[in-house]
Structures
1.
Amino acid sequence: MNRRPAADRRRGWPAPKLALGAAVSDGWAALVDLVLPAGCAGCRADRTPLRRGVCAACEAAVAALVPHLVRPVPAPPGLPPCAALGGYQGVLRELVLSYKERGRHGLAGPLGALLADVVAAHTGSPVLLVPVPGTAQAARRRHGDHVARLARHAASRLRTAGRQALVVHPLRAMPRPDSAGLDSTARAAAAATAFRVRPGRVARLRTLLRSSGAEVVVVDDIVTTGATAAAVTARLAEAGVPVRAVAVLAATARRMPPARAIPPARPTPPGTSRAVPPGSSRAVPPARAVPPGKTSRPAPPPT
Ligand SMILES: [Zn+2]
């Protein structure tokens, strides 16, 4: 990341220019499908016009979602403030699953743009995105690290909107069993040993932080118990890298009521009109329901 120009240091960083609708539209428009999808990635409708693999109704459903603070109950120790676009349900859930488990890789662009909205709503600039590292096993199964890909698209979208954003990879994931079926205690135990610091990259990251004043944001597709995000945060903190926030696309709704008492680390910069103030009771609109019979196999639980 380039050092901030003198003028920027005096004035502060440019106000974010992201607007949810614009971000969604741009994200979708920027994407080129390489393979014609079988149907809408959100509702599987196959006799409706699709834009980038998603029908107009599903696109509108996610466009209506507003990034908000969430908190697992119980929250693991050391978990930073978490922001999500919506609950892990309805169209958003189907899009995440289509991208992550059904090979719809083309959704990385629009979903990355949505993740950028979550980051922009709750952090400043410059920002360094740390995708939760996936295991090599998971990357092979999904033809790549799906969270890293999301993060790259999110950073690109943030830069287009006038923010400084980079993706950094200071951690690596250790081989671990699938967390499906684990309760929160077991997940926390598994997550505690799941990541290792990459010393050279962390050293460069600390240098970058000192020179840029950037905020570090951990990004993931889904947050469930928060154990994974807390473990990533702990490894980074041990290495001298403070994490400002966690940003995800979807939060499992049953455990994650909208948080009301997470104070911001510092005042929200001017112009961040889309940020939901702490304590806001603004609820996430329910996502469009998937028509009966449209859901096929049960989805593996998120990590
Ligand atoms: Zn649809």
Note: The two ends are 31 Å apart (CA to CA).
2.
Amino acid sequence: MTPIDESPMPNPSMTPETLIPTPTKGCLYGLSLGPGDPGLITRRAWELLQGDGLWAYPVRKWGGDSFALDIVHRAGLTLPAGAFPLCFPMTHNPEVLAKHWLTAAQTVLEHLDRGRDVCFLVEGDASTYSTFGHLARTVSALDPLIRVEVIAGVTSYQAAAAHLGLALADADDTLAILPAGYGVHTIDHLLDEFDALVLLKVKPLLDDIIALLERRGLLEYARFVEKVGCPEERTVQDLTQIRGETVNYLSLLLVHNPHRNKEETLRGCRKKEASEGEGA
Ligand SMILES: C[S@@+](CC[C@H](N)C(=O)[O-])C[C@H]1O[C@@H](n2cnc3c(N)ncnc32)[C@H](O)[C@@H]1O
């Protein structure tokens, strides 16, 4: 007698892999919130904030405030159940930073592994000098199959320019965006190379930059903006007024150099050098 095969009938649509049910892992979102004004939260970010993804928000020390969380609170949202902080201290020590990125990534991964989406709240834009980049890279290194999605947002300097009614760049202007920590020597050089500079993280070097701009006759073409879009927002037109002041970390400078020696352009393009395009 032929033995009866009592194993379940295989579903013809199933591949050997799909026969073993694997829980779907969650997605890690870099949720850009804009620089402070809740009105600059995009519709996409707003939808995700109202969804069932867990919120993760950055703090500089355990129990400390979170600027990103402050933005969503000012937008009228309250902390949902399950939201959790991730600690990223303000230090340049690479070992301390790596340790905290790893701890944060492991925490996030526990939730993703259980199938929960995690929305990491980011001040400004998540692709612009953001902790999210480090977090996403560390999570992906631990599990390359995790899905990561960045929700684009308004940057601090876009909001600052708009608030001041200034163009960041016009016509054929060149624009450089950099952390001021590169130092006055680099900034001095870039003022010859670019029509406009956005200087972020200016706090530690502010007096030196003011002195440079004064030396180069550019003070009147520079603006200082602190905590744009927040209730404490401040813009300063005469930079000599803030000389010697300890300003907020969330502050930046927009500088234009109208004296820059530009190369001639033809219909918006640089004229070709005599040797360029010849004999090619
Ligand atoms: C780590 S970077 C983050 C940049 C941010 N992801 C963005 O999209 O603008 C921090 C620097 O951005 C600038 N910044 C961020 N938010 C700001 C705000 N609300 N007002 C003025 N500057 C801000 C400051 O120069 C600050 O030192």
Note: The radius of gyration is 25 Å.
